Amino acid sequence: MCATRLRYAPTALEAYLDSGEAMASMRRGIAASAGEPEAPATLPDTMKGLILAGGTATRLFPLTIVTNKHLLPIYDRPMIYYPIETLAGMGIREVMVIVGGKSVGDIVELLADGSHFGLDLTYRYQPGAKGIAHAIGLARDFVGGDAFCTVLGDNILRGGDLRHVAGEFEDGPWGAGTLLYRVPDPERFGVAELDANGVVLAFEEKPVRPKSDLIPIGVYFLRPDAFPVIEHLTPSGRGELEITDVLNHYIPAGGLFTRVYDGHWTDAGTVPSLLKAAEIVSQDHVAGRWAPPPERPT
């Protein structure tokens, strides 16, 4: 699948909870005037969401010795609020949070049932750091027969909402999908190898010599047929089940959906990227593209 570029007009963040047709119509009008792909007239009807909030976060020691990294503050709210906002912005309402590592109970206490985000949250525990694909595999019963989107809990995306991307995948023929993003240090990530026409040929996990500067960021669109693929994966040299192996499975038959994300992104998994995330959000606040976090029910 060719990597098509997305362009976003700035929107107010508070719209992420709004599912009204009037607001959706306004966004479609803005997108059309900016030359963007038109968003679906309706929100994804059955797509579910996953947020992965496990791991040991050793790259953030000593900050994460006694707490889960997804509870660390980024600007004015905990890190895990951002992937929640990303999924809510797609129109997804049923979300499972895969927890693990430190302070699992604190995450549940913080997020509760998700009603203050406009979501219905449930939880599943991942014992140990066994990889992104392993964590996704734990959601098989929750997903059922629906398409779903997984967002990594340390990924901060600041741009237009992605509801039209989610709708395009859900209505399309693809088996899997991801967003691509240009980075200056692709060797830290799984890297996309492209042909001369920009078609993704493969993903390579943390290569010494990257073949491009495009990486699949932590937003993955999948369908239930991904679970048998995950079952047959073998652990990588890191001892984990890699999401890049899942994506690679769909490439030969043209079953991979990719879009290049032109908003701001960082993974907040290191101290420098944690600071970068706060700076990105601060810039949005100064520009008037920010809203206070939702109030928790009392």
Short description:
The protein has 298 residues and is an alpha/beta fold. The protein has one domain (4-286): Spore Coat Polysaccharide Biosynthesis Protein SpsA, Chain A, CATH 3.90.550. Helices cover 27% and strands 22% of the residues.
* CATH architecture identity: Alpha-Beta Complex
Give the oligomeric state: single chain
Overall form = globular
How much is the radius of gyration in Å?
18 Å
Average pLDDT over all residues = 86
What would your notes on this structure say?
This protein has 298 residues and is of the alpha/beta class. The chain has one domain (4-286): Spore Coat Polysaccharide Biosynthesis Protein SpsA, Chain A. The chain is built from 9 helices and 14 strands. The protein has helices spanning 21-33, 81-89, 104-111, 132-137, 140-143, 163-171, 226-231, 243-250, 271-286; strands spanning 4-5, 48-53, 73-74, 77-78, 94-99, 120-125, 148-152, 156-158, 176-182, 190-194, 200-205, 214-222, 256-260, 264-266. The strands form 4 sheets. Strands 1-13-9-12-7-2-5-6 form an 8-stranded mixed β-sheet, sandwiched between helices. The protein is globular.
Which tags fit this structure?
single chain; 298 residues; alpha/beta; Spore Coat Polysaccharide Biosynthesis Protein SpsA, Chain A; two-stranded antiparallel ribbon; 14 strands
Write the layout of secondary structure elements.
Layout: E1 4-5, H1 21-33, E2 48-53, E3 73-74, E4 77-78, H2 81-89, E5 94-99, H3 104-111, E6 120-125, H4 132-137, H5 140-143, E7 148-152, E8 156-158, H6 163-171, E9 176-182, E10 190-194, E11 200-205, E12 214-222, H7 226-231, H8 243-250, E13 256-260, E14 264-266, H9 271-286
Parallel strand pairs: 1-13, 2-5, 2-7, 5-6, 9-13
Antiparallel strand pairs: 3-4, 7-12, 8-14, 9-12, 10-11
